[in-house]
Design goal:
The structure holds two protein chains of two kinds. Chain A is α/β, with parallel strands linked by helices. Chain A contains 13 helices and eight strands. Classes of the chains: A alpha/beta, B alpha/beta.
Chain lengths: ~270, ~260
């Protein structure tokens, strides 16, 4: 049975699209047929991060309006097999996403044997974000280690619990996963950032990963590749772990301790 | 408060009619405009904050801000009924306004409430401002009430965390929260409030005027606490109380916060 996963946060700029791209690519690399949908109509970004912006002909809104078929709009990823991108429309308003239309597209993806459907939510708690989360079975709450991001995540958790289809029908609630991004252990140690434990305590949901602040995230997005494909980078490895945990595996958290340079390195310098 | 009674005795010994003088706590809808077009969005916004609470609630119309304005009673009442409020009386209006409303079936309450100041808790026409300390509190403590037994109704038990932006109202009884309350949430109860996790949002107990209601929590980190309309902002909570198991209660006019 297909699982619909919304990647959401309330706050903007915390790494929803980066996370959507990497989780979708990671799930596909593990052999699961996966579609990732950009719900950020008007601020289309996912196609850039996925490096397929020059291959967008039809988009999500075209499919909803019946101007194109889903097969025409889905873009097959060049690097990972079983990964497809459904881009947002850049020229429309969020209101173009009707509930019926979104439901039809999701149903059709399920009928096409997609195992995972990742919904990249826009920021905010308005219509676009509501549509992205409404049909979700699971939610990945992307949070930065700072108070306003945590507050907004808390708000979106409340909306997941009250405004989703599962909530309205009284079904089993959406499974909530916390993903902390841009985590900098050194700054946490100095008290400049909230720590992992504080965030988990405030939000009271289980964590599926901590993505360290890492230059590779920006490099990967400029290159149009999900950062999970940068296998040498800490962020890439942390996303690989998060995907495994999303699939139910248990892995210890990495990259959450301050990295202390070794004795010889301190003595002789040298590049880390 | 003892009820004063005027009784006519019937043959069976039980009076067929009794007249009782009793104070009831009622919501007051303070109107800042006589224009239904201006009122409508403000009402919609105000009622959206607690739709169940206001459903078919009896209200008193306060016309203090409308002196001298022409009132279309039929239009005004249609709008109020449309929002499922039941006007049971009007006050602070001028002669013509009160006559117009009385003709439409809403009596003047002049004699009963002369000593009260115009209510401020439900100003439907002001800027929607849920940040004022008492902006969302449905009833003020100013109204004299006969205190019902604390927690006389069944408690409302909430097992999930209450998130920022969520509002929970336990009508007629206690609110028991097993998890934590997040910053920016509101816990409201006619009775007492019990929080077994951290209390980080706002907690308003005894909102129907019950001064005997209390707030109990395992970990006090609230933004605002209130008992029967007496509220306190906790922006400078003493270290001795922060994060500690505490109870909050009303001692006369004074709100007390104590370690348990």
């Amino acid at each position: 049975m297909a699982r619909i996963i919304v990647v959401t946060s309330g706050k903007g700029g915390v790494g929803k699209t980066t996370t959507s791209a990497s989780l979708a690519a990671g799930l596909a690399r593990r052999g699961h047929k996966t579609a990732v949908i950009d719900f950020d109509v008007g601020l289309r970004n996912l196609d850039l991060i996925m490096g397929c912006e020059r291959r967008v002909v039809y988009d999500f809104v075209n499919v909803i309006n019946g101007e194109a078929t889903l097969n025409q709009a889905l873009i097959r990823d060049k690097h990972v097999s079983g990964l497809f991108v459904l881009p947002a429309s850049q020229t429309r308003e969020k209101e173009a996403l009707t509930q019926d239309g979104v439901e039809r597209v999701l149903d059709e993806l399920v009928a096409m044997d997609f195992e995972y459907i990742v919904c990249d939510s826009p920021a905010g708690i308005e219509h676009g974000a509501r549509m992205a989360l409404y049909f979700a079975d699971e939610a990945v709450i992307v949070t930065n280690p700072e108070v306003s991001s945590v507050r907004d995540s808390d708000r979106i958790l409340g909306i997941l619990q009250s405004r989703s289809r599962r909530a309205e029908r009284g079904d089993e609630p959406i499974r909530e996963h916390l993903l902390i991004t841009r985590y900098n252990p050194a700054r946490v140690a100095e008290g400049q950032m909230l720590g992992l434990e504080d965030i988990v305590e405030l939000l009271a949901i289980p964590s599926i990963g901590v993505i360290p602040e890492c230059a590779s995230v920006l490099e990967a997005s400029n290159a149009g590749r999900p950062v999970i494909s940068a296998e040498q980078s800490t962020a890439g490895q942390a996303y690989t772990d998060a995907v495994a945990r999303l699939l139910g595996e248990e892995h210890p958290l990495r990259f959450i301790e301050v990295h202390k340079p070794g004795f010889f390195k301190r003595l002789f310098g040298g590049t880390p | 408060m003892p009820d004063s009674q005027v009784t006519t005795t019937s043959d069976s010994g039980r009076p067929p009619v009794e007249l009782r003088g009793r104070m009831e706590t009622l919501l007051t809808l303070a109107l800042g405009s006589a224009d239904p077009q201006a009122l409508r969005p403000a009402l919609v916004d105000k009622l959206r904050q607690a739709p169940d609470f206001f459903d078919r609630a009896p209200v008193i119309l306060d016309l203090a801000a409308l002196s001298g304005q022409v009132l279309n009673a039929a239009e005004l009442l249609a709008l109020i009924h449309e929002h499922r409020l039941l006007p049971v009386g009007a006050r602070h209006g001028d002669e013509a306004q009160m006559r117009a409303l009385a003709t439409a079936g809403v009596p003047a309450l002049r004699a009963l409430v002369a000593r009260e100041a115009p209510a401020k808790d439900l100003s439907a026409t002001g800027a929607p401002d849920s940040r004022t300390p008492d902006g969302d509190i449905p009833a003020t403590a100013a109204a004299a009430v006969e205190p019902p037994a604390v927690g006389s109704g069944a408690p409302t038990v909430v097992a999930r965390p209450v998130r920022s932006g969520q509002q929970i109202y336990a009508r007629g009884g206690d609110l028991v929260l097993l998890g934590s309350a997040s910053p920016g949430c509101e816990l409201i109860a006619d009775g007492s409030i019990h929080v077994y996790g951290a209390l980080r949002g706002r907690a308003l107990c005894g909102v129907d005027g019950n001064g005997g209601a209390r707030i109990f929590c395992q970990n006090l980190a609230a933004e605002l606490v209130s008992v029967a309309g007496h509220y306190k902002l906790l922006d400078e909570l003493p270290e001795a109380l922060r994060g500690k198991p505490t109870q909050i209660w009303l001692d006369g006019e004074q709100l007390r916060i104590e370690l348990i």
